[in-house]
Every structure is written in structure tokens, then in C-alpha cells.
Amino acid sequence: MDKKVKDNFWNERRVLITGGAGFLGAWIIKKLVEKDAHVTALIRDHDKNSNLYIMGLHNKINIVWGKLEDYPLILRALNEHETETIFHIAAQAIVTTALRIPLQTFESNIRGTYNILEAVRHSEMVKRTIIASSDKAYGTHNKLPYSEEAQLIGEFPYDVSKSCADLIAQSYFKTYGLPIGITRCGNFYGGGDLNFDRIVPGTIKSLIFNKNPIIRSDGTFLRDYFYIEDAANAYITLAENLDRKDIVGQAFNFGTGKSTSVLDIVNKIIQISGKTHLKPIILNTVKSEIKEQYLDCSKAKGLLNWTVKSDLEKNLKKTYQWYEEFFNRK
Predict the structure, then answer these.
(1) Which site among 110, 255, 285, 324 is 20 to 30 Å from 138 CA-CA?
(2) What are the residue numbers of the active site?
(3) Confidence of residue 47 (pLDDT cuts 50, 70, 90)
């Protein structure tokens, strides 16, 4: 795509983002607002601590209050706001929550996805739809890193919900020709994640309050840690390319392509904090989670000319500073 055309791609385009007050959703909104898009967000709960409000984005967009499970609401939102592009980000995304309440997870992640896709099927205006899957959709495989050809064989509630949502999206493309792109990303981290059950924000919060950080696993679990602004750019890049026949209907891995252990991440954050007298407490109590998982992102590099350009340690420092400012405000 010509650079000038790309720079103006989102100007006055009408976009609907589900989960707009969430961690990733708010960052995508920020970047689209900066590109002069006309953004509407579907939001379930009002959270004044979310990035959407901290960055003042709620005053720059339209908001539709409601749930993914409400199909008539989604259909109305698409039509009344003349939506051309959808980023379906909203989900119940916490693994431990999914273990406690699988029904709510399935309702949100599976039913919510087919509601979005069915609404798109009945809309003549939608030209591109990005569906957020996950690296967890792959389940457990012996061959690492995971490529897009790996089977989707999730076992545990969150993983299964993402496998199902991913397969449903593929079905709507193959059956109805819907203009769909699917993202499968690594573990997000960065400023604005208020789910302190996750290892990065949870560790930072503990250190800021001078407590030893908690590791629920044995510390050796491997993940692909993916900075949130890089993730937002990846979503936007895929959407910009959905007009291409070799891209539409495809799933793409997005991440760093590198694995880092939980213990290494925690120790890096401890070093950044300067509070080296604090040591991680390893509980080794985690159950029903994938042991090792990271992504082969060569497909995105080859077809979308997309690569991660940022550095883990640099981004962890930026993330730590965000939470320092956040807790100082509070």
C-alpha cells in the first residue's frame, strides 16, 4: 500500500470496536482516533480506571452500552453507526476466571463471536472484520514455535472458547464469504492492563507496594510476551490489508517470536524496579494451563511486511512507569 494512502486510510472511516474499554481495545481506539477514524465502542461496564478514560478517549468516540450476548443490540449498533470496519476484541480473557466460571466465558467468547459474525452477515456496509483469537486457541503442541498450520485443539475453558471462536470465524468466511481476518497473539503486557491476576501487572503492583511478587506456576512456563502498542499496530495493519485476496479469510500469528519464562519476566521487572531485596514467591499451584507456547510470525512478516520493532526490556520499563503514575494518581 502506498505510504500516503496508508497514512490517510482511516480518515473518516466508521469503525466499531467491541471491548473498547478493555486493555487492547483502548490502545486500538487511541491509534485510530489519532488517524481521524470515526470510532464507536461497544462497552459492557463503566470503568473510570481504564485507559479509555485515563487517556480521555471516551470524549472522542461514540459509546454503545451493552453485552456481546445481545444480538439485536449488535445489529442495531452496526446499522445505526453505519459501520464499515469491526475490531471484535471483547472477551472474557482471564484464564483463572474462565476456570471458575466457564459458562460465562463460553457465552462471551463463543456466543459473542457468532453474534458479531451473524450481524455482519446481515449488514451490507461492513467491509472488514477483525476477529481476536489467541495463541491459546492452538492448545498444546510438541512442535514449537506454533505456526498458523497447527491444529486448534484447546483443552481448558479459555483455550477451548478461543478455538471455537476461531473456527466459527473461519466457517463464516468459507461459507458466506465474509471479509474476515483472524489474529492469534502472544501474551499482552503494557500500560493499562488492570487485570492484576496477569503476571506483568501483578508483579509490578506487588513491587510498587513493597511486596514480594507471586508466581502461581513453577516459574518455568514459557510465553511470547507482546507489547500492547505493537499488538494494536498489528491489528490495524491486518485490517488495512483485508481488501487483498491473499489476506482475507486468513489467520495470522502476531508476537515477538521469542519465548521468555515467567521467572525471567519477574526478575527483569524486579531489576527495573530497583527493589532487588524483594524476591518472587513461587507457589507452583497453577493447573489447567499450557506449559510452553510461543509463535512463528513469519507469515505476518512475509505477507503483511509486519515485524515487532520494540524491545522487551525497554517496554517493561515504560510499563513500570505507567503503573507508578497510575497508583500515584490513585
Answers:
(1) 285
(2) 158
(3) confident
